[in-house]
Every structure is written in structure tokens, then in C-alpha cells.
Amino acid sequence: MMLSIELVTFLLFGSFLLLMVAGVPLVFALGSSAVIGTYFLWGPEALYAVGIRTFSSSTSFVLLAIPMFIFMGSMLEKSGIAGDLYTMMQKWLGGVHGGLAVGTVFVCTIFAALVGVSGAATVTMALVALPSMLAHNYHKGLSLGCIAGGGALGVLIPPSVLMIVLGLYTNTSVGMLFLGGITAGLVIVTLFVAYILIVCALKPELGPALPRGERATWPEKFSALRSVILPILLIFAVLGSIIGGAATPSEAAGLGAMGSILCALVYRKLTWKAVYESCTITLRLSCMVMWIIFAAAIFTSLYAAVGADELVRSGLSVLPGGDWGIIIGMQIIWIVMGCFLDPVGIMILTAPLFFPIVVQMGFDPVWFGVLFIVNMEMAFLTPPFGFNLFYIRSVAPPGVTMGDIYKSITPFVLLQAMALILMMIFPELITWLPNQIMR
After folding, report:
1. Do residues 239 and 176 lie in contact, with contact meaning Cβ atoms separated by under 8 Å?
2. What per-residue confidence (pLDDT) applies to 92?
3. pTM score, two decimals?
4. What's the CA gap between 221 and 323, in Å, rounded?
5. 50-86: b or e for each residue (b if 16 or more CB lie within 10 Å)?
6. pLDDT in the model for residue 62
């Protein structure tokens, strides 16, 4: 007896969510529900397809970029580059109301372009910038919010590991996603900086300028610029090689990994301990991402085979507003899911279903892909399960409570939502650079 697609959907997602609630890791919850579903729907012979699908996923050339970008970020973190960058920003912007918070956002932006993940920038800046801002009488909410919001840029500004997985998962050009992520990231950075400067101009007590005796001289400012030379050169080498067509994302990742070793050497932080710890982190995170990709490939192949696209299309078609109503509905679904699930899980569950529909409606998949990443950037901040909130809490001073962190992210989430709306109204904010360079 053939089961209806509605019943299959209920059984698949129900078993997946039940296992997640029971504490089973994402990869095992996803993979086991898919394997068991395949067995009961088509019998033991169909399990051969599970192995074939897993093997085809594992042989993708794009996957090579993931461990190398993770290694690059880990090595740069060991080199102490974030502390040097913050010191430079403090010297240049400390005399401005809100300058330390603006500098924190800028450092997070540079760090995002170097490491490709959110956690590294968030934790590092919480350790480096938060004590400094609190010591200079910055408002606790502003200090926490700029770190949480700036740290989330790591999933949007290339080389974003999440973008690499999304490109592989949806057959979208990773290079095009990277280019779209550059302009989208700059839009959000601009909104963050403008907000900080405006509120601190209206209420200087939120972010007081450094006393004149603590401000750097011009020779000190120019001397501090040396700390930004290597990071900028590495960013241009990695992204420039992709944009210029000289390297694929995987080849550029190799260039970045080598560049991170050279940076650590120049900063005199290249030790066997640093290399060992970076390799260990790379192995652990890469294995986690790879296994999730394998489990997701099995799950989505099964769900697509039973007619999921028709079910999702018919469900979204009842929304008012035509094609744009469907797009807006998808964004709302992602925002709600972002409060409760991790970005990789959301991508696994929705991207293979949403992207074909969007392409059939005639929308640009690169534009839609970057919108998804912006949503996932919001997911790192939205309670109750925003990752950056817990990253900050794990290293925050004793006087910082979880309530303080929750309150601090409100304006930055609203700014992210504003950026999302602007990018939907003006798609060129995402597509202009990819269209200029790659088409």
C-alpha cells in the first residue's frame, strides 16, 4: 500500500524531530530517519541507493574548500590577529563617540573575511573588545550587541563555510554566492555602523569618547596600521583569486591556508602546538560538516523521491501575493525556524525544496541564496537558541547575565531584518557585483 506524501512527511519529520528532542545528534537523527524510511518505503534493495548517494556527495570537488578554510581561520586565531586589529581600531576611532563599538564591528568584518565562521570572531572579540569597552564606560547593551551582531557576519561575508555547503547542496555557483555575500555584508555593516554613530551622537553616555590623554598620536595611528596589512593582503589574495578567475574556491582555500601559516610565522606565533591545535579543530569541524552533508543528501533524496516538491509548492501557492507572497512566506518560515534550529539543519530541511520552486518562478538563485544566508545570520542572534548569545555568555565577565545579552541584540536583529527587506526590494544590492564580474 502506497502512503500519501502528507503521511510520509509527518512520519519523516516527526521521527527526525523526535530524535532531536531525545538528544540524538543532528547527523544521526537525520541519517537514521532517512535510512529507516527508505527501507520501509522501498525495501532493503533500495538501501543501495543510500550508499550511491553518499558516495556521490563525498566526491564533490567543492568539499575540499571546507577543511582548508577552517584551518585558515584557526591558524589566524592562534596568531593573535584579532587583538592587534582591535588595538589599531582603538587608536584610530577611540576619540569618536561610539568609536570602540564601530571598531569592533570593523574588526569582526575583517575577521569574517578571514575565518568563514561566526563562532571564532564572536568569542575572540568578547574576550578582547568587551572588557575594553566596559572599562571605558560603554553601555553594556551596546557593547554586547555590537559583538554579537558583528560576529554573525562570519556566515555571510566570504569565505563563508555555510555558503560553500549551500552552493554544493543547491547546485548554485559558490563564487557567485561569495560575490553576492560581499555586497550584502557591506550593507549590514553600514547599517550597524550608522546605528552606533547615531545613537551615540544622541546619547554620548552610551559610548563615550576616550579622554584626550588616552588618544593615540598620529605617528602611533600610522604605526598601528601595520597590523592590518597582512590580513588585507590575505583577503585580497583569497577572494581576488576567485573573482579574477585564477582559482576555484577550493584552490583559493588552499592559498588561504598557506597564507595563514605565513601570517602566523610573521607574527611569531607559528609553533607546533598552534599547528596541532589548528589541525585538530579542522579535523573535528570538517568531519562534523561532512557527516551532516552525507545525512542530508540521503534525507533529501528520499523526500524528493516521494513527491515533496509538489507538496511544498501546493502549500506555498495558497499564500496571498503571488510569487512575491511565496518568497515572503519562505523568509518568515526561515526566521521562525532560526529561533529553534541551527542553520545547517534549516538548510537541510528547506533548501532542496525551496530553491527549485524559486528558480521555476524566475528568480535569481544567487539572490535567493544570499537571502537565505542573511536569514541564517539572524538565526545566530535570535533567542532562545541563537548561537552567538551562548558564545558570548561562555566568555563574558561575571557581571553580564543572559538577560543582558538577550536585550542587547534587539536593535541589531531589527537592523538585519531591515537589510533583508532592502535586499528583497532592491535585488541589485546582492546581484550587482556577481553580474558585473562573473557574467
Report:
1. no
2. 92
3. 0.83
4. 52
5. beebbeebeeeebbbbbbbbbbbbbbbbbbbbbbbbb
6. 64
